[in-house]
Amino acid sequence: MSDTKIFEIKKDRYLYGIFNILIGLIYAAVMVFYGINSLNKGDVLWSVIKFATAGILGFFFIYMGIDRIKKISSTRYIKISKEEICIDEEVARREDIKELYIPKYDDYVEIRKINGKKIRILENMLEKDSFAQLKEFLSTYQISR
Prior knowledge:
Mean pLDDT: 83
Strand order of the largest sheet: 1-2-3-4
Order of helices and strands: EHHEEEEEEH
Low-confidence stretches: none
Keywords: Membrane, Transmembrane, Transmembrane helix
């Protein structure tokens, strides 16, 4: 088991999801306020349009925020061994990997599978030194094709 490395995912990326939820709530509140003002003025059509945009766009922003938080909280580790690379439930076995793309100066590592699916590990998912260790460990990963 000495050839297996486990990298923990950072958890400080919740702010992006919280920001999306906050934007959705603020947008929905402002549009509902404008809709009520339009309704008080007698513009029923404009108030219906404003209520609809408040509901639809507010829902989408809130949904995107919740989805982002769920994705961040569900990804907990990256486990790399000589036989496979696991990112939680996503498994790329050695025989399924077509190519490991490790750019020297970029901030990501890409695992390209035979079926065309790409798994991308971003630098901001890991701590700075952990990402350097990941790139170093993957550079020694041999794929026989």
